[in-house]
Amino acid sequence: MEKGQNQKLYLKYKDDFEEAKKYWDAFWNGEIIDRPLIIACFPKNEKKILPPDYLSGIDGNFEQPIDKFEEFCENTIFFAETIPSLRISFGPDTISYFVKGGEKNIRIKSKTAWIEPFIDNWNNFKKIEIDKEGVWYKKFIEFYKYASDKGNGKFLLQMPDFHTHLDLLRAIRGTEKLCIDLIEIPELIKEILEEIKYIFIDIYNEIYDLTEMERWGTTCWIPFYSEKKYCTIQCDFICMISKEMFRKFALPYIEYEANFLDHSIFHLDGPGALKHLDDLLSIKKINGIQWVPGAGNKPHIYWIDILKKIIKSKKSVVIYPQSFEEVKIFHKELGPERVVYHFWNQIKNLKDAEEIRNYLIKNT
Q1: What DSSP string describes 268-290?
Q2: CA nearest 311: which of 32, 104, 39?
Q3: 208-236 as b/e, with b when 16 or more CB fall inside 10 Å?
Q4: What is the DSSP letter of 322?
Q5: Domain 4-362 has CATH 3.20.20.210
Q6: Cβ of 71: how many Cβ atoms within 10 Å?
Q7: What is each CA distance from 307 to 31, 273, 312, in whole angstroms?
Q8: 118 CB contacts (<8 Å, ≥6 apart)?
Q9: What tens digit of pLDDT does each residue of 167-177 get?
Q10: What does the DSSP 8-state code read for residue 49?
Q11: pLDDT single digits (tens) 259-305
Q12: How far apart are CA 296 and CA 294, in angstroms?
């Protein structure tokens, strides 16, 4: 079978899939066709159908979220470069559920799930291993397989949250204890990080192969699209550590994951992580930065200097405009290159979406 980039593919819920692929391909190459990229979806009519709830499928009922997602797709316009894609998640720390010895520490509530830290002493825990025969790993992979079979030719599947390396240790050890470990036993933590760095690639490749992503391309919870291997890279724990610690305990593993991928976006979360921006921009294989100001902080329009700095470093940015007027300001200040506008609920209908697209074309 030929690779996806050499095929013409049809998606039931995205008639212009081939056209969208051209824009994404140009984007990754740092080129502009006629405007910045746009991610936005909205109802076809006044009847609003929501996608499946977060954590859907964690109970093992895969049919219900797939049916609900198809109902959502049937009623939704996936505008411009928006690709219909299903998010599969058992919570932000899903990867940690797969660690051998931790399966009994998973806690689930109606809208969230997490793992209770279970490593009290590293001396009593021989090695961090992914238990592929464990209940959580098997359920997760089975969900991907089921969704891939049901969605084949209809919609794509997003790669999961990969809270690996330091985020994985934080989940199974606890934030406070890991902070102390980095000071008291830094060499042991470094040794552990070296031992577990393969986890990202191992799980990514299994999902990639299982769901025929070589044919269809890849997307993630930051819903960019690539015909090659793309994913969001992240490490939320970095807001807790100094620049020196970041360069020793985080930077090598972020770079390791970026070097494996063809395309990547780094999720930079909150002002506490901004001190590491220069180091992140130095990683050649990271294509872009998703800057998220964090809960309670001012929206993107107040952070234009940060966005300019990212673009000046030849990295892409994800912009979350609150209005059409903000789009005009962003476009004037940032220009069209390396920019993706991601709308949540700001665009209500096709008329409004086309107005924004036409404005960007006219002014690019």
Answers
A1: EESGGGGGGHHHHHT-TT--EEE
A2: 32
A3: beebebbebbbbbbbbbbbbbbbbbbbbb
A4: S
A5: yes
A6: 14
A7: 18, 15, 9
A8: 101, 102, 105, 172
A9: 999 999 999 99
A10: -
A11: 999 999 999 999 999 999 999 999 999 999 999 998 888 989 999 99
A12: 6
pTM of the full predicted structure? 0.95
| Single-letter amino acid code for the residue at 309 | K
Rounded to whole angstroms, how far apart are CA atoms 307 and 273? 15
Q: Are strands 263-269 and 225-226 parallel, antiparallel or unpaired?
A: unpaired
Strand 316-319 and strand 288-292: pairing?
parallel
In angstroms, the CA 33 to CA 246 distance is 37
> Which residue type sits at 342?
H
Q: Where are the domains of the chain?
A: 4-362
- Asked whether 263 and 224 are in contact (CB, 8 A), the reply is yes
Strand 85-86 versus strand 76-80 pairing type: unpaired
**One-letter amino acid of 218:** T
Structure tokens at 142: 């089975």
User: What are the φ/ψ torsions at residue 350 (nearest 5 degrees)?
Assistant: -65, -35
Instruction: From residue 185, give the alpha-carbon distance in Å to each of 31, 177, 324.
Output: 46, 11, 51
Tokens of 329: 């300001």
- Order the strands of the 288-292 sheet from edge to edge: 76-80, 37-43, 339-342, 316-319, 288-292, 263-269, 230-234
